[in-house]
Amino acid sequence: xxxxxxxxxxxxxxxxxxxxxxxxxxxxxxxxxxxxxxxxxxxxxxxxxxxxxxxxxxxxxxxxxxxxxxxxxxxxxxxxxxxxxxxxxxxxxxxxxxxxxxxxxxxxxxxxxxxxxxxxxxxxxxxxxxxxxxxxxxxxxxxxxxxxxxxxxxxxxxxxxxxxxxxxxxxxxxxxxxxxxxxxxxxxxxxxxxxxxxxxxxxxxxxxxxxxxxxxxxxxxxxxxxxxxxxxxxxxxxxxxxxxxxxxxxxxxxxxxxxxxxxxxxxxxxxxxxxxxxxxxxxxxxxxxxxxxxxxxxxxxxxxxxxxxxxxxxxxxxxxxxxxxxxxxxxxxxxxxx
Length: 338
Known about the structure:
alpha+beta; seven-stranded antiparallel β-sheet; two-stranded antiparallel sheet; 14 helices
């Protein structure tokens, strides 16, 4: 397969560098790993960026007042973060509050869970030139023998990028959805998304019906219709490009009425969930994943976006496996010429 360049190296600049408020765009990063505990991870963050550690509970730490902003380090499971284990124990007639020291019980749960549930770092939103600072954190975690996606067949660990959007105009958002649909097959092949992650429900592609609707030249919805079409097409927070945080921010009332399982935190960003987190691999980096995302942004702003959309519909909305390889090669050639 043609491999467009650059695949790694410095962080590429997006075509548009201002957010919807006219300020320099920022990106939040989330990544999952194992092999290093909460406290040791928090110490690494304070060594690099300063700050003060605050223990919210046995499963979640905040590092405040760092030179980049507030970090979170947490055991990545709602069972623990939402203290769902208490509900489960209560069903069995066990009252956690009746035990001596509740914090000791929570720490024991943490010790048991940390062998099978990943820890997650949630970074503050940082300016794009500052992403190299987060790369330093990844390098330090690697030196401490943190383990990522490919360290075990059970490690369905991911990295999420949350780049701020450039506009609240539904026409702009539709362009980015189109671009992602076009580029996603190449990313999945190029990044070699691990089978353990592909088997989970957390990086779902958009449905064929939704792709077909969005890729039509005539599709020009207002924001409420776009949100309605997105959710009623079966899209959830588990899409590889999750738009619910953005829709909740832009149109909270419409979004909340249509969502049955609650909203993620509302923010003016795309929530890009597809990448592996190969933190144990010296050849892998945050820059590699960011630069793959940049191809989505370049396509979104490209004058030939609608022409490529028509060609994708013609080639890809058919149940023929070999067509995907042809499409990936076509996109790779487009990248080579950019």
